[in-house]
Specification:
Number of helices: 25
Structural class: alpha+beta
CATH topology of the largest domain: Heat Shock Protein 90
CATH class of the largest domain: Alpha Beta
Shape: elongated
Distance between the termini: 134 Å
CATH superfamily of the largest domain: Histidine kinase-like ATPase, C-terminal domain
Length: 800
């Protein structure tokens, strides 16, 4: 589209000045005031009306004292006028008073207005940026721009100043005639659209490459203003420069009228808001992201006003507490059943500390009620938002539902309490069993020792030999029961070695085959090259035997499979916590032994009692087999699990710590010579008279002479009286007045090379752990035979 040919009128210079004056005084947002040399106000723009309150009509003819403070008025304006006239400019901060009496401060610039002869005929005052309204957007200019023709001298002299002011403005300004042809553009408009100043007059937006893309939009707004007489205010218009740069303008266009009200054209001003729109878009996107994060947060997001009424109910608030936003907004937390009654005091204290300023942020964990009355446990992170005056604006709470965690922790605590009670019960029963076994071993020592002595005194073909053999057999069986009781208590006999678990099971295979039902099938799943196991081979064989025999009995008269599996597994804290009576074992790699059957299984009630000593479901059982298994596993610092399904079978899984280093090579036991005999005086100390006498007879049969002592103190006194007389000392570990440990130390202090043999009803590991490295010659567990005593003494007294 091409605009018609434009012919400038003869008074174009006069019109140009009027247009520039109209733009400055009606479209620049700052206050612009023109005064005569005597201070009389000659012009007053819309910005001055907005800022100071007086209309143009009210201000004309007055002096700047109109808007100066009374104490400043006599001297301020004359000083400003004088300095501006002398130096060409005055700038600074001045106080002002509005029509309504309000006071403020603003930036003030004063410029002298000169005629063609260089004489000052007036002063232009520009007042900008009232400090108390820095955030207040400027008011729009008047709806119409009226061209008033001032006196010729004023117009002539004013023209140059107005041109400079318009061109110096940051916003694009322009005037067009009724056909949309440019009558005037300022420098900012020409730069924005890359227009040459000499080419602008009489051209339309369609004629400039920088405006052609959106020229139809610009022209349509121009025609709307011209045809309706109504301004187009605050229109966002796109632009595209010749170099391809795109952006947005905030444009206002007003009808340009003469004094008779006839529309001559359009006056407009445009501000580049590209950066502002981009920033607003980014801010909006950030707000939307924040809102999305809040609404999709795994936490409840609750905002309270200073009175603790709910202002925002977002995130998981409804999911956690049940109430919708519409049901709770504006309500105080105490107005509905929100806080658990037992936690009201706690919540009240948390709220009080936030409100009175003791806490700017705090944390609490408390109980709440949901809409349906369910109790939920929640953790609250609260923070207070203050304004510039440190007044509370709102309180933000981020709330996490920790009900599952609290319930799980409570369940774990109850489980630990039960486990502690069970462990304490086991410890108590273990102590009882260990004490009983120790005392029984002392009694069995006399029975078995005397029986073996009697058999040695009798001829091999004596009919009494059979009776004594049965006595020995019964004593051995009783001793085995004591061993099981000691095993249950964790005090069984230990000979610790680096063992190969697979080899131990394979060595037991033949014994397993003859011990189980003919209908049972043994299946082995042994993982090769396992780490070594630090333990007692005899006790571990007992574990395997007991569990396999139990599995065989669970099959009953039906055919089934017993599986024996070994391997290495990683056990974490959760797994170890779920084991039967496990100690506080560390997480890590463990050897495992698993024995499973396809038998009848057990009920949960039976499963919960299988490790109780003397509990059995068998008619002929003694209830010590699994109790002994548990004790042995505990003694090896292991853990055990048992699972069972009625009708589907039972699985026992035992964990043992992995040992470092290689497996020990078995050393064949030496065979003692029945002909070996000792000599010299032996001191025997035991608080059981029958044991003392039996041991003394055994020693005498081997070749020693004996002296007896009923406790450690008596033994020490006898030894210290003649230390060189004794070739051997036999001490019981547990004695009144002075126990075996103290007696041992006293004797060794008296004569360091004394051979001391320790005897006890407890196992060797428990009995001798306090004697390690202190010169103990040997240990025998009661009960023992004369042959066992001879073997031990042969070790103590090597051949000369």
């Amino acid at each position: 589209m091409t605009a018609p040919t434009f012919h400038p009128s003869p008074d174009i210079e006069r019109l140009d000045a009027l247009l520039r004056r109209a733009l400055v005084f009606n479209h620049i947002y700052d206050a612009m005031i023109v005064t005569a040399p005597d201070g009389t106000i000659r012009d007053w723009n819309a910005g001055a009306e907005r800022m100071l309150g007086w209309t143009r009509t009210e201000a004309l003819g007055k002096t700047p004292a109109l808007f100066h403070r009374p104490e400043d008025a006599p001297s301020l304006w004359p000083s400003i006028h004088t300095v501006a006239a002398r130096q060409g400019r005055w700038g600074g901060r001045t106080a002002f008073v509005r029509k309504n009496g309000e006071e403020g401060w603003c930036g003030t610039v004063a410029l002298p207005l000169l005629d063609q002869a260089g004489n000052v005929w007036g002063t232009l005052l520009a007042l900008s940026g009232p400090e108390d309204e820095s955030s207040t957007p400027p008011a729009p200019p008047p709806a119409r721009v009226t061209l008033q023709w001032p006196e010729e001298p004023l117009l002539t002299d004013e023209r140059y100043l107005l041109r400079a002011l318009i061109d110096a403005g940051p916003d694009a300004m322009f005037c067009k005639d009724r056909q949309g042809r440019f009558l005037l553009q300022n420098e900012a408009h020409r730069v924005l659209f890359a227009i040459n100043e000499n080419e602008a007059l009489g051209q339309t937006a369609f004629d400039f490459p920088g405006m052609q893309t959106h020229a139809a939009l610009y022209h349509a707004d121009d025609m709307t203003v011209v045809q309706t007489g109504q301004p187009v205010v605050g229109r966002e218009e796109p632009y595209e420069r010749p170099d391809g740069a795109k952006g947005w303008l905030l444009t206002s266009k007003y009808p340009l009228c003469d004094e008779a009200g006839q529309i001559l054209g359009v006056a407009g001003i445009s501000r580049d808001i590209t950066q502002m729109k981009r920033a607003a878009k980014e801010l909006r996107e950030a707000q939307l992201r924040l809102i999305d994060h809040v609404e999709n947060s795994p936490l409840a997001v609750i905002e309270w006003d200073p009175d603790f009424r709910i202002g925002r109910w977002a995130g998981q608030s409804e999911a956690i507490f049940g109430w919708s936003s519409a049901e709770v907004l504006g309500r105080h937390y105490g107005e509905f059943s929100f806080v658990h009654p037992d936690d009201e005091a706690l919540v009240g204290n948390v709220v009080a500390r936030l409100v009175d300023g003791r806490d700017r942020r705090n944390t609490s964990t408390n109980r709440h009620l949901t809409k349906c009355g369910r109790v939920v446990h929640t953790t609250w992170q609260n923070s207070v938002l203050h304004d510039a005056s440190d007044r509370i604006v709102s309180i933000l709470s981020l709330v996490q539902d920790v009900t599952d965690r609290v319930v799980a922790e409570e369940a774990e605590r109850r489980a630990l309490d039960r486990k502690l009670q069970e462990t304490q019960k086991l410890e108590s029963l273990g102590i009882l069993a260990g004490g009983i076994a120790h005392d029984f071993n002392n009694l069995l020592g006399a029975v078995l020792g005397n029986a073996s002595l009697a058999r040695m005194d009798l001829a091999p073909d004596s009919p009494v030999q059979t009776c004594l053999e049965k006595i020995e057999l019964a004593a051995h069986r009783a001793a085995e029961l004591c061993k099981q009781m000691l095993a249950y208590s964790g005090k069984g006999h230990f000979v610790v070695e680096q063992l190969d678990l697979n080899a131990l099971i394979e060595d037991t295979t033949r014994l397993l085959q003859v011990s189980i039902s003919k209908r049972a099938i043994l299946r082995f799943h042994l993982t090769p090259e396992l780490p070594a196991l630090l333990g007692d081979a005899t006790q571990l064989r007992q574990v395997v035997m007991n569990l396999v025999i139990n599995a065989s009995e669970a099959l009953g008269e039906t055919s089934g499979v017993i599986s024996i599996t070994t391997g290495v597994t990683r056990a974490d804290h959760a797994y170890l916590t779920g084991t039967f009576f496990a100690p506080d074992l560390p997480e890590g790699d463990y050897l495992f032994l698993e024995i499973a059957d396809t038998g009848i299984g057990m009920t949960p009630e039976v499963l919960g009692r299988i490790f109780d000593p003397f509990f059995t479901t068998k008619f002929t059982g003694r209830g010590l087999g699994l109790a002994a298994v548990l004790g042995i596993v505990r003694g090896h610092r292991g853990a055990l699990t048992a699972t069972s399904d009625r009708g589907r079978g039972t699985t026992f899984r035992i964990l043992f710590p992995c040992a470092s280093g290689p497996v020990d090579t078995p050393i064949p036991n030496g065979v003692s010579k029945p002909s070996w005999r000792g000599s010299g005086l032996a001191l025997v100390a035991d608080d059981e008279e029958s044991v003392r006498a039996t041991v003394a007879r055994m020693l005498e049969m081997i070749g020693f002479t004996t002296r007896l002592a009923e406790d450690g103190r008596v033994a020490v006194d006898a030894f210290q009286a003649a230390p060189d007389r004794f070739n051997l000392v036999v001490l019981d570990l547990t004695m009144p007045h002075m126990d075996g440990e103290e007696a041992f130390h006293r004797i060794r202090e008296t004569r360091a090379d004394t051979r001391v043999l320790l005897i006890s009803g407890f196992n060797e590991q428990q009995a001798t752990e306090r004697f390690t490295g202190k010169g103990l010659a040997g240990f025998l567990q009661k009960p023992f035979t004369v042959h066992a005593l001879r073997d031990k003494l042969q070790e103590i007294f090597p051949p000369n």
